[in-house]
Amino acid sequence: MTTVIEDTLDHGQPLSREIIAPGGRWSHRLETGQRLRIVDLEGQQAVDFLCYSAELPLDRLNVPNTVKLNRSLYVTKGCTIFSDKARKMFSVLEDTCGFHDTLAGCCSIEMDLHRYGVEKKTSCRTNFVNELAKWSLSPSEIVSNINFFMRVTFDAGEVEIAPAVSKAGDYVVLQAEMPVIAMLSNCPQDSNHSSGFRPTPICVEVLPPLGESGLTA
Ligand SMILES: [Zn+2]
């Protein structure tokens, strides 16, 4: 696992680096220009992602705006993530995977009971509820999210959660375009392909703006 991270250390010394266990959650405020790197350490691990303006949290990730303004149902390198007010929240600077979902939203205890007849204790939705509380934000602030490293196909209008194509060490780098609260759930789903039926850890780094070096450990 350490090797995978060190192999891709050409992004500058991170301001912070955390390993998020399967089913874990994370949030952090980023200032304009700071970068967020999410590494799928073992491959095929869905990472559910939300973001909010740090100065006006009611202006938040808007997936339909993102889809329309990028003219793409997938988020990948070169895309911009937009808010309700059509403001730029993040630019996708790098992407070694290429498939990131905008359709499927997050898993929930209720949906898993409905879909699989299984009563679970955790989900991305419960993770978001708990993480939002840290920022005094309520569950009503959960909106349709982006799923990094998750592949949802939509051939002929038929939507399916398909086996992910992300390999161990694949990553995305997002550059904050405004002060922003980034939030993610390392999806605990073990009943479909979103996490390869085997949720695994991820690494999350906050990197300084391009051209600036970060703090040394
Ligand atoms: Zn999930």
Architecture overview:
With 217 residues, the protein is an alpha+beta fold. It starts with a helix and ends in a 10-residue tail after the last strand. It is built from 4 helices and 12 strands; from the N terminus they run H-E-E-E-E-H-E-E-H-H-E-E-E-E-E-E. It has helices at residues 2-7, 63-70, 109-116, 124-133, and strands at 16-20, 25-30, 35-40, 47-53, 80-82, 88-95, 146-148, 151-153, 160-162, 170-176, 180-186, 202-207. The strands form 3 sheets. The chain has a 6-stranded antiparallel beta sheet with strand order 1-12-3-10-6-5. The protein has one domain. The chain is globular. Bound molecules: zinc ion (ZN). Zinc ion binds next to loops.
Number of domains: 1
Oligomer: single chain
Distance between the termini: 19 Å
- Report the principal-axis shape: globular
Low-confidence stretches: none
State Rg.
Answer: 16 Å
The largest beta-sheet arranges its strands as: 1-12-3-10-6-5
Query: Structural class given helices, strands, pairing?
Result: alpha+beta
How much helix is in the residues? 10-25%
Number of helices: 4
Task: Give the percentage of residues in beta strands.
Answer: 25-35%
Mean pLDDT: 93
Task: Describe the main β-sheet briefly.
Answer: 6 strands, antiparallel
InterPro entries: DUF1989
Domain DUF1989: 18-181
Protein name: DUF1989 domain-containing protein
Write the layout of secondary structure elements.
Layout: H1 2-7, E1 16-20, E2 25-30, E3 35-40, E4 47-53, H2 63-70, E5 80-82, E6 88-95, H3 109-116, H4 124-133, E7 146-148, E8 151-153, E9 160-162, E10 170-176, E11 180-186, E12 202-207
Antiparallel strand pairs: 1-12, 2-11, 3-10, 3-12, 4-7, 4-11, 5-6, 6-10, 8-9
Bound molecules: zinc ion.
